[in-house]
């Protein structure tokens, strides 16, 4: 059965992508060359729900579910700042920058997305929602000392706010994995608040 690899996310605006690019450059200078595979700034987004392999006949129902979820929540502002690692800075695998949204609207949007896609067979995420933007992934071939250095750089970085943006829509996106990296195609952009 043919499938598409899909997810639901908020796209970053150009100004925030530029801020993220500058942050990646600053971190890259402080880490061993090749120890982190940096995500291309144009491919960074705030993932609300990763659906994975989605049967073609489910694409239109997911689009409708995303539109319904978006209509339930009005626009809001996202603030970006603060560095971290998953699972932690002692064993970094992913380097990220955090997101903050003070009104709780972002969490309500994520919950609405979960509620509307669950009946389509996409299990609800059990882990606590931890909004972030992935900056890079630690390479498997990185030495123990390089991994330790990555964690130390992140832990010692006192990063304040690097930018903010209004979130006005949510996107349903197809991801095609290529040797050069993932290629993203927006299948639907739904305005928040049903505007």
Structure, briefly:
The protein has 195 residues and is of the alpha+beta class. Helices cover 30% and strands 39% of the residues. Helix 2 runs antiparallel to helix 3 (105-117).
Write the layout of secondary structure elements.
Layout: E1 3-11, H1 14-30, E2 36-38, E3 45-55, H2 56-71, E4 76-86, E5 94-100, H3 105-117, E6 132-138, H4 144-156, E7 161-167, E8 169-178, E9 181-191
Antiparallel strand pairs: 1-3, 1-8, 2-6, 4-5, 4-7, 5-6, 8-9
Helix pairs in contact: 2-3
Description of the structure:
This protein has 195 residues and is an alpha+beta fold. It has one domain (3-194): Alpha-Beta Complex (Cyclic Phosphodiesterase, Chain: A). It has helices at residues 14-30, 56-71, 105-117, 144-156; strands at residues 3-11, 36-38, 45-55, 76-86, 94-100, 132-138, 161-167, 169-178, 181-191. Strand 8 and strand 9 (181-191) form a beta hairpin. Helix 2 (56-71) packs antiparallel against helix 3 (105-117). The relative contact order is 0.26. The mean pLDDT is 92.
């Amino acid at each position: 059965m043919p499938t598409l690899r899909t997810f639901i996310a908020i796209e970053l605006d150009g100004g925030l992508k530029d801020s993220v690019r500058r942050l990646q450059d600053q971190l890259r200078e402080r880490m061993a060359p090749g120890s982190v595979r940096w995500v291309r700034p144009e491919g960074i987004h705030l993932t609300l729900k990763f659906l994975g392999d989605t049967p073609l006949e489910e694409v239109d129902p997911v689009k409708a579910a995303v539109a319904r979820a978006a209509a339930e929540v009005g626009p809001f502002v996202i603030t970006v700042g603060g560095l971290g690692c998953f699972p932690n800075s002692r064993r970094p695998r992913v380097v990220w920058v955090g997101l903050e949204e003070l009104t709780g609207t972002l969490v309500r949007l994520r919950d609405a997305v979960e509620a509307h896609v669950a009946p389509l067979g996409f299990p609800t995420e059990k882990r606590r929602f931890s909004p972030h933007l992935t900056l890079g992934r630690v390479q498997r071939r990185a030495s123990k000392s390089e991994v330790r250095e990555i964690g130390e750089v992140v832990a010692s970085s006192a990063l304040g706010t690097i930018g903010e943006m209004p979130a006005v829509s949510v996107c349903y996106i197809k991801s095609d994995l290529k040797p050069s990296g993932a290629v993203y195609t927006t299948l639907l952009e739904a305005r928040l608040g049903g505007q």
